Amino acid sequence: MSDVGFFARRYGPPPREGRPAMMLVHGLGLSGRYFVPLARRLASDGVTVVVPDLPGNARSRAAARRAPDVAQLADALARLHRRLPLGPVPVVANSVGCQVVAALAARHPRLVSHLVLVGPALEPRTSGLRQFGRLVADAPKEPFRLLFLAAFDYLVTGPLRCAASFRHSLRDAAESFEVNLSQVRAPTLVVRGTGDTIASGTWTRRVAELVADGRAEDIPGAAHAAHYSAPDTLAALIGKFTAGELG
To answer: Which residue in 93, 102, 130, 225 could disulfide with 180, CB within 3.0 to 4.6 Å?
Structure first.
């Protein structure tokens, strides 16, 4: 990976030690733009929200000469965190971003106070072809504007970079994802839209069981990107979870 810094958005007040903060982490080939509705909702409560484009993706494409693997992305997030005046923070991720933050919490546990995994993917022991088919099946269930954002981000990141990232993610799902989850000690909320075709209900419950302190919640009517289609519902869940109000 290059030493060039990577791009991150900020919502809410400037980061400061002792001030509530969160980090939101996108999925494969995308940017943080599809987290904007949730970020704005969280920031309206006075939370500092940091939303990076992971190295090699979208506006951070030049921050890596090749597509980084999952562990490299986790270490890059750790470096970003340490450059900011933050203590341990809740980290929210979607899709393949959940693999990245599981690695972050396993490799750098002191940086993460809580994990929120929205539609965790990729599912171990599922072929790449089947995973791709699930993605295609999910697309008609998502808002049109999200599909437009995703298509633009995939073009900016580039098809070859997306394909390389997909291979890295499949390897991580087969070899490391469940191991990393078993090492997570931060309280973890696993969220699934009931219409999600990518992260199955069986798998999301398995994720909640693998971590030391996990619970699973569904968002009715949402698909894979529940944070985009139901930001208010998810923000309320996150607020209750981080306040210790979920059973």
So the answer is: 102
Q: Which domain holds residue 83?
A: 8-240
Q: pLDDT tens, 112-145?
A: 999 999 999 999 988 989 998 999 899 999 999 9
The pLDDT score that the predictor gives to residue 86 is: 86
**Can you read off the two tokens belonging to residue 94?**
């979607």
DSSP state of 139: G
Q: Is residue 3 part of a domain?
A: no
pLDDT at 247: 64
DSSP result, 149-217 = HHHHHHHHH-HHHHHHHHHHHHHHHHHTHHHHHHT--S-EEEEEETT-SSS-HHHHHHHHHHSSSEEEE
The CATH code of the domain that includes 107 is 3.40.50.1820
The Cα–Cα gap between 138 and 114 comes to 27
Cα separation values, 1 from 73, 75, 145, Å = 9, 11, 32
Contact residues for 85 (Cβ-Cβ < 8 A; gap 6+)? 15, 16, 17
Q: What are the two backbone dihedrals, phi and then psi, of residue 225, each rounded to the nearest 5 degrees?
A: -95, 65
pTM to 2 decimal places: 0.96
Tell me the CA distances in angstroms from 187 to 105, 195, 236, one per residue in order: 11, 25, 17
Question: CB within 8 A of 3, min separation 6: which ones?
Answer: none
- Total count of domains within the chain: 1
